[in-house]
Amino acid sequence: MPRSELVRRENRAGWFFVLPWVAGFLIFTAGPMIASLVLSFTDYQMIRSPRPVGFDNYRALFDDPRVLKSLSNTFVYAAMFVPLGTVAALGLALMLQRVGRASGFFRTAFYLPEMTPAVAAGAMFLLLLNGQQGLVNKVLGWFGINGPNWTTDPNWLKPSLAIVSLWTLGGTVVIYLAALNGVPRQLYEAAELDGAGPVTRLFRITVPMISGALFFTVITNTIAAMQMFDQAYTMFYGPQQKAAASEESLVYMVYLFQNAFQFFKMGFASAMAWLLFVIILGITFVQVRIGNRYVYYHGER
Amino acid sequence: MTIPWRRLPFLVALVAATFLFVYPLVWLISASLKPRSQVFDNRLIPAVFQPQNYVRVWDAGPVMRWLVNSLTVGFMAAATVTLSSALVAFGFAYFRFRGRNLLFGIVLSTMMLPGAVTMIPVYLIWNRLGLIDTQIPLWAQNLFGSAFYIFLLRQFFLGIPRELFEAARVDGCGYLSMFRRIAFPLCKPALVIVFVFEFKASWSDLMKPLIYLQTPEYFTMPRGLKQLIDAFALSGHYEWEIAIAASVIAVVPMIVLFAFGQRYILDGVATTAQKG
């Protein structure tokens, strides 16, 4: 067989295998992206066909106090969850690494909550965080702490959401543990010979050596936090929502969802979606810029 | 056996942390067996056992249907995404075709795209097809593969020695049977990971059932559970013991799945960041 025939066959075969994804990308990603961009410049309530309105939806984004409120709520939640989650998961992973074979058991136990559907976790924490009788406040009471009304006091709604999310940080712990196990032991031995203490070793060896995993989880957790929906919707929203109390728990995706599927303001919701996209791109871009300066990759090519 | 004294403080701290992670689930199961007035007491063994809570869950909603629906949707979502992602991943791993690198770059970049951007037009597509209030939109998109799984499986396929495929080629094996007879079986652990990840994701999902389902008969477990909680909130009559029992019913299948697949699952999670 001539070489050109072989090349052509491989070309055809390759495209044949990736065809499902290409088709799916065109139908469910590229097409909808264009459609949603177009919709974001229209007034579309589903009953009539879309009516072009220029930049009205985008202007309305900045005039709608609930958009800004939900955005700031989301930022506050992410700013609590991402750093706390990273530090806590790293602490747990470092301890796991010290206990040798027992780490298998603990790793399993820490991951268990991740198997809990967000709705079930939300329902459960509504009770555990109940201000009067909830278990969390009872335990705090043992230490003489008068716990807040987590699920009803407007100031404590976002911390409540962060607590539910922190409960499911086991996946991050598992990732960090795997990264820690990949750090060559000789580095520590050499550092110890040079008289480096535990804190120096942590910040000069451990953290740089696992910076790839840290970077990966910070980015993915931030992106996920910006799109948080299930817990907030379960705990604070639904047909029964009380408008006054809910303002502080209104995260961006909940408000977007309401606009799209409860108020049927499809054009406005599309504009909200694009604003979120731009914000996530921006945050990720900044994180990558910062990360590139500090992240060390073992097998750097 | 000597006691590893140096490890003791870590063990104590880890046991305490384990308590924080596991106790809520233990509490949940315990509370699901209590009468409403005692849901909040701290007894692990209920003072009064009320297993009837579980019977009353079945009266509160078609829970059996929700379970079957969740199982069906989860299986369809996981099976289709595993098969299609494997096919595409093999395409990217094995063949050198024109446009491959650009295309793979697009695959990776779609992982960053927030679902919100495509959510509304995709809803309009299913609406146009008359498939709202059916379960098809909950899984049919998975027929086309999913970026993260394609990425993960491609890494595994790249790990299979190329000579194996070349030998099969020499023996007259076609591309499709190479995929079916060599790549697919050799990648079984990775395929299990993908299947379990997607099953779990589908089982937990609330947003899609909220968007696409209206008839309670078609609800999945999380959507049904949310319905129960909403109903209590609307009536002002909080039957917490029922919501708790329903939560247990939503959680337990996942815990069973985890018990059987934990090594696969945990190793799968551990590799996700490493392959980056």
From TrEMBL, chain A:
CDD domains: TM_PBP2 (cd06261)
Pfam families documented for this protein: BPD_transp_1
Recorded topology in the membrane: Multi-pass membrane protein
PROSITE patterns the record matches: ABC_TM1
SUPFAM superfamilies, per the entry: MalF N-terminal region-like, MetI-like
Compartments, record wording: Cell membrane
Membrane-crossing segments per the record: 12-41, 75-96, 108-129, 160-181, 202-229, 263-286
Protein keywords: Cell membrane, Membrane, Transmembrane, Transmembrane helix, Transport
InterPro entries: ABC_transporter_permease, MetI-like, MetI-like_sf
Positions of the ABC transmembrane type-1 domain: 71-287
GO cellular component: plasma membrane
Main location: membrane
The organism's place on the tree of life at top rank: Bacteria
Biological process annotations from GO: transmembrane transport
Family that this chain belongs to: Belongs to the binding-protein-dependent transport system permease family.
Protein name from the UniProt record: Carbohydrate ABC transporter membrane protein 1 (CUT1 family)
Organism taxonomic ancestry: Bacteria, Bacillati, Actinomycetota, Actinomycetes, Propionibacteriales
UniProtKB/TrEMBL annotation, chain B:
Subcellular location, record wording: Cell membrane
Leader peptide range in chain numbering: none
Predominant localisation class: membrane
Pfam family, one: BPD_transp_1
Membrane topology: Multi-pass membrane protein
GO biological process: transmembrane transport
Keyword hit for Mitochondrion: no
CDD domains (alphabetical): TM_PBP2 (cd06261)
Cellular component aspect of the GO annotation: plasma membrane
Domain ABC transmembrane type-1 residues, every copy: 67-261
InterPro entries named in the record: MetI-like, MetI-like_sf
Transmembrane region(s): 7-29, 73-95, 102-126, 138-157, 178-197, 242-260
Keywords carried by this UniProt record: Cell membrane, Membrane, Transmembrane, Transmembrane helix, Transport
Family of this protein: Belongs to the binding-protein-dependent transport system permease family.
Official protein name in the record: Carbohydrate ABC transporter membrane protein 2 (CUT1 family)
